[in-house]
Amino acid sequence: MKYAEKKWRVYLKPYLLGAMAIFAFVLAIKLFDMPESSIATMFNTGVDVTGLFVCTALCYGCIDQNNIDFEESTYWLTALIFQIGLSFFNNELLWRMANIPSYRYYYLFLNELTKIYDFGLVMLFYNYVRRMLEFKGKLARWLDRYVFILIVPFVILVLANSFVPINFYVDEQGVFHTLPLYQLVDIYLLIVAPLTLILLFKCDALLKQKAVAFAFILIPIIHYFFTKGAHGYATQYGSTLFAVTLIYGVLFSDHSKKLATTISELSTAQKIQESMLPRIFPPFPECEEFELYASMDPAREVGGDFYDFFMIDDDHLCLVMADVSGKGIPGAMFMMISKIILHGCTIQRDNPSAILEAANKAICENNKEEMFVTVWLGILEISTGLICAANAGHEYPVMMKNGGEYELIKDKHGLVVGAYDDSKYKEYEIKMDKGDKLFVYTDGVPEAMNRFKKQYGTDNLVKALNEVKEAGPEETLQHVRKSIDSFVKEAEQFDDITMLCIKYNGK
């Protein structure tokens, strides 16, 4: 299973940690109200509760796409943080059940669970370092098998303690006692630590990445020898959490720099894209035969839709409405390439079908990413009002005859541009008389969606257009946009919204 398919597991973790933190906090409030509570109990409870809240914040930060991108290493980091949180919670329960005879067996089970959690922490950290530093090769594969196989006898040793006291036992009064072999299970932890260090020294990662990974090993080991492996102190997980916080800080710092660079690049891309689209209205003040207005609102900083209009000669105006398959920067790049190719093909040819066929061949030649673009292209003969048009998989245009209402023109669609290099396109004609209007758009208009996942649809579009039949092109587009906004309300815009309207005035 790919890590992207495990996202739901990652998203669930901070909420579970948050619930455990709140539960531990409620227990802690009751504990501090009890005068017989020892200083050690209150100290460890405070560390456990604080650690749970910190784990919740870190885990949530990892899944926030604005902080750290979701990838394989992030999956292991969130798993590691979640395991530390479980250890804090388990430790809190241990302190509540200690020295209570009726909880003896629960207390015994939780102590065994503590050791298994420790194994889990080591395994998860090893996997995280392995993925984060992208260490590969025969040594890595050998260590993978060794680390996994070696854990089996130690887990068996811990579980066997339930039947035959080997490492520790809990007496009938609920009091925990260690045995001479208590530290035996910690041998696994001390073996895996140097194996992970081997990975650190062998890989080509940045020095700061190696440093924080080394801190995760060093800090708990220092704590272990300082406390001589004493049982039940929450600071052992606190030291582990401190090391993980260092790791998160380095990741967040690196990501912040990348994010700042990306934002700057997106801003530049947005300016370049805006400069590619005609933005001056009215575009041809000397041409009184028609009125024209267009707009493009990207769903992201940069979009994949585009419109275009330009004079082929003194009597012919080319209109283009297009929507590329990609979004973001890839879509914007493909959009600019498609726009330039379509413009170049229009200059060399005088009919829409030939223009689309030539553009399709040019795009297919170097289309390794297999992107495509839907296009509606029409050429208006200004003197007569006759539009010759062709549709390459694009939305139906909407036409209003003077004195009538807006209606869809259900033209014949050809294949999208960029799919097959030998695609053919059929032309059709639209006769515009004085006062007639033509409205073209991208699928971001009818597919605009509200929070109930209901689409705006072409019926609402035609209805909105008919509410302003007497309006000019600019006011028409503004009204349609208000209608869309009123429909979707607080729902996020997920696709570019691009529209163009032309009114024919005649001679």
Classification by helices and strands? alpha+beta
Low-confidence stretches: 1-5, 65-70
Rg, alpha carbons? 33 Å
Return the average pLDDT rounded to an integer.
80
Strand elements, count: 13
Largest sheet: 6 strands, mixed
Number of domains: 2
Helix residue percentage:
40-55%
Q: Kindly, what is the distance between the CA atoms of the first and last residues, rounded to a whole number of angstroms?
A: 66 Å
Strand coverage percent: 5-15%
Task: Give the SSE string.
Answer: HHHHHEEHHHEEEHHEEEEEEEHHE
Write down the overall geometry: elongated
Number of helices: 12
Short descriptors:
12 helices; six-stranded mixed beta sheet; Phosphatase 2c, domain 1; 507 residues; alpha+beta; 15% strand
Give an overview of the whole structure:
By secondary structure, the protein is an alpha+beta fold. It folds into two domains: 3-262; 280-504, Phosphatase 2c, domain 1 (4-Layer Sandwich), CATH 3.60.40. The chain has twelve helices and 13 strands. Strands 4, 5, 6, 7, 10 and 11 form a six-stranded mixed β-sheet that branches. Strands 3-13-12-8-9 form a five-stranded antiparallel β-sheet, covered by helices on one side. Strand 6 and strand 7 form a beta hairpin. The longest helix has 42 residues, at 235-276.
